[in-house]
Amino acid sequence: MGRIQLEPAYILHSRSFRETSLIVEAFTRGHGRVAVVARGAKSAGSRWRNILQPFRPLLLSWNQKSELGTLTAADQIASPPALQGTSLYCGLYLNELLMRLLHRGDPHAEVFERYRHVLSELASEAPPQPLLRVFEKLLLEAIGYAMLLDREYGSGADVQRQNWYDYKPDRGPVLSSGPGKGRVSGAALLALKAENLQAESLSELRMLMRAVIGYHLGGKPLASLSLFSA
């Protein structure tokens, strides 16, 4: 609580508040996800009208007396990454993930820096699927839902590349008899553990992460997934 000055931040989402203002949800490096009122931000002459947009690297200042703060300054500190097409949809997906999984006021500097890195990589047209899978893994670890990837649930046996597993989102991999719907190979699990993803494992890992994240969201789907296959 108090006055926060020049905090690195990105806008995740905003919505109208009264006639001329916005409630802005921002992801900040030192304070996590925060919500602030940007008074007059919808007015034609507002200094914030074109600044409070997703993906722009900002420095935000605000007063915090309750869960909802009051924005006092917003400055863009660099050009935003040039996201378009698939890379833009990926960025929207990341923003929704952060909105849905992060609690307000819970800082995760390592997630913030990885988010910044992923936006830059997406803008450079790097393949998006490996970037998304590793980001999802890091985010789950940061909020206390780290995935068991290298050992079997229950037995503690090492995951083997040639084996196939049923992955239980609240527990981990359970050895299965072979490939099948919803199953994931040991090779894919170990690749995700090492953050060294190869093309042959991306389809498996996309299904795996969608199931795990869906579990932690209580089965409520992400709206951004209707735009493309993340």
Can you say what the CATH homologous superfamily of the largest domain is? Recombination protein O, C-terminal domain
The top level CATH class name of the largest domain: Mainly Alpha
Give the H and E element order: EEEEEHHHEEEHH
CATH topology of the largest domain: de novo design (two linked rop proteins)
Structure description:
The chain is α+β, with helices and mostly antiparallel strands and 230 residues long. The chain has two domains: 2-76, Nucleic acid-binding proteins (OB fold (Dihydrolipoamide Acetyltransferase, E2P), Beta Barrel), CATH 2.40.50.140; 86-226, de novo design (two linked rop proteins) (Up-down Bundle). 30% of the residues lie in helices and 26% in strands. The chain has five helices and eight strands, in the order βββββαααβββαα. The protein has helices spanning 86-101, 109-123, 128-142, 186-194, 202-216; strands at 2-17, 21-28, 32-38, 58-64, 68-76, 164-168, 172-175, 183-185. Helix 1 runs antiparallel to helix 2, helix 1 (86-101) packs parallel to helix 3 and helix 2 (109-123) runs antiparallel to helix 3. The chain is elongated. It starts with a strand and ends in a 14-residue tail after the last helix.
